Amino acid sequence: MTITYINGGHIYYAFLAGAREVARYKKMLNRINVFPVFDSDTGNNMAATLNYMVDTVNPSRDAGETVRYLADASLSGARGNSGIILAQFINGLSREIGERERLSTRDFGDSVSRAVPYAYSAVANPVEGTMLTVLKDWAELVHSLGKESNDFVKLLFSSLERARHSLQETPEKLKVLRDAAVVDAGAQGFVLFLEGVAGLLKTRDLKALLLEKRPVEELQEPVEAISGDISLRYCSEALLTGRGMDHERIRERIEHLGDSLILAGTPEKTKIHLHTNKPEDFFFSLTDHGKVIEQKVDDMQKQHQVAHQRKYDIALVTDSIADLPQQLIDDYQVHVIPINLEIEGSFFLDKLSIKPGQIYSILDQVKEYPTSSQPSIKQVQHQLAFLCNHYDSVIMISVSKELSGTWNVFQNVAASLREQGKKISVINSRSNSGAQGLLVLKAAELIAAGKGHDEVVQIVEQSIPDAKIFVSVADFKYMVRGGRVSPMKGFVANLLNFKPIVSLDEEGRGTAFANALTRRANTRKIVKIVQSMLDEGRLNRYCIVHAGAPDKAAAYRELFTGLIGKEPEYVVEISPIVALSAGLGAVAFCSIADAEKEAV
């Protein structure tokens, strides 16, 4: 069998075969992932990158056109160091192939050889012994063989052997690999991609490629779990669009914020990767260079804990509307999926790439008021797929479905995973902010106490009717701009100096619970409500949350500690998403009853 040229169809199905092979072994890639950090997600990232490309692109017979489509999709779908390096290589390959309708072995060899420097240029500090090295060694042999032979089959199998040999040498070049007794995970992923292509050439059976579900044969893995310190917590990625974006200027602007900096793409569309402890500074710096149309922030410490230091068999998941201190989130290993926030065409992740303290100055400056939207299906799928690989079951507690589409997204993704045999429960909290946070805390404590999945779900659901929030709003203008109140009602309310108390009804819908003409009168009404709940035995635990108002929150803490006889569970600033309607100066009392009604 001899193949003397390849067209767009050949290239697309080669990528499809390579993507399938990487996906088969993604768990193994996760387990040998030690560089640049021990975050155990290289397999997920490479599989997600390649699968996005082949799922998005419709192949053409034109080679140049197909690779252009794949290159563009790679920037949108790229995840992690290895995914973005691969995306930059493919973008370089696209530029070098140009408008060619089909490629000879010489054309292909020349193109892959000239594409390698693109991959190296994307990395701020290229390190040998990684996927870059294996990519370079493979491309050099492809280039050499392309001039000697017109047979793609010979070219691929010979260069695959060179890639395998280069892979086995990676521990010799990188001490962290040698110490862990593993090869580089990204490099292994690239070799698996090539092996997938080789498997397709052996069988030439597209039907088998599309339909076959053969069992996975695990490759050699380390005997002990790999671990290490992760000093920079967040793997942050942005997709930036604009005109004439200067990669060097962008690099200079953000490189001091962390490490593992990678820039891939073109002056019109760029994917940027950075490990940092301040993702909010990273993303806001990028808005000076273009529009941030996509973001991803992975908590690498949490990923490492899940893979190697998991405390419980049940994963607890909520959304970023639930207001809880980071310390409690970390202590109970709660997984938080961020809500999306759009500010004048750029997109941010609630509490991750935009912090509560940043939102208030923005609200008074922007012409178009920011809007929020539920997490994407892709965001939730990525998170749940990772958790289902490590936990026996998952419990998800969402913001009230009457306030957001988040519950529907959680439910839809959970339903698809249940069909695969996963145990996942999705609870509509019918609350938000601190009330939702207290429900999540309750679930976390039950899991930590060793309660079973079904019992935790039952007790949390029993607690929902008595989960309450009473928000003292300082200014109606934020509710008007956010669309919660009509401009006319807001005008009248401000004219009369109303100080509303906002709450949620039994179904979780927002409602104006009461009005007062002064802040002091407003507080007296909340005190009366709290006293009534105490008298009826419907209040056991409480918290205080606020919108840029620490002094008011401190006053509430002192007041209610005296009234209730104990300190709040916590005092914390609200989510930027909640701040869109509550506005600067708002403070809230949140509570739940002690629903220790044991499951029968």
Give the topology:
Blueprint: E1 5-6, H1 8-24, H2 26-31, H3 42-56, H4 63-77, H5 80-97, E2 103-104, H6 105-122, H7 131-148, H8 152-173, H9 175-180, H10 185-203, H11 206-211, E3 234-241, H12 247-254, E4 258-265, E5 269-276, H13 279-286, E6 291-299, H14 300-308, E7 314-319, H15 326-331, E8 335-337, E9 340-343, E10 346-349, H16 356-363, E11 371-373, H17 377-388, E12 393-398, H18 406-418, E13 423-428, H19 433-448, H20 453-463, E14 468-472, H21 477-481, H22 487-495, E15 499-504, E16 510-516, H23 519-535, E17 541-546, H24 550-564, E18 571-573, H25 576-582, E19 587-592
Parallel strand pairs: 7-8, 7-12, 12-13, 17-18
Antiparallel strand pairs: 1-2, 3-5, 3-6, 4-5, 9-10, 9-11, 14-15, 14-19, 15-16, 17-19
Helix pairs in contact: 1-3, 1-4, 1-10, 3-4, 3-5, 4-5, 5-6, 6-7, 7-8, 7-10, 8-10, 17-18, 19-20
What does this molecule look like?
This protein is elongated. The strands form five sheets. The protein has a six-stranded mixed β-sheet, sandwiched between helices. A four-stranded antiparallel β-sheet has the order 4-5-3-6, sandwiched between helices. α8 packs antiparallel against α10. Among the domains are: 5-211, Serine Threonine Protein Phosphatase 5, Tetratricopeptide repeat (Alpha Horseshoe), CATH 1.25.40; 233-300, 2-Layer Sandwich (Alpha-Beta Plaits), CATH 3.30.70.1150; 466-592, Hypothetical Protein Tm841, Chain: A,domain 3. Helix content is 51%, strand content 17%. The protein starts with a strand and ends in an 8-residue tail after the last strand. The chain is of the alpha+beta class. Residues 214-226 and 485-493 have low confidence and may be disordered.
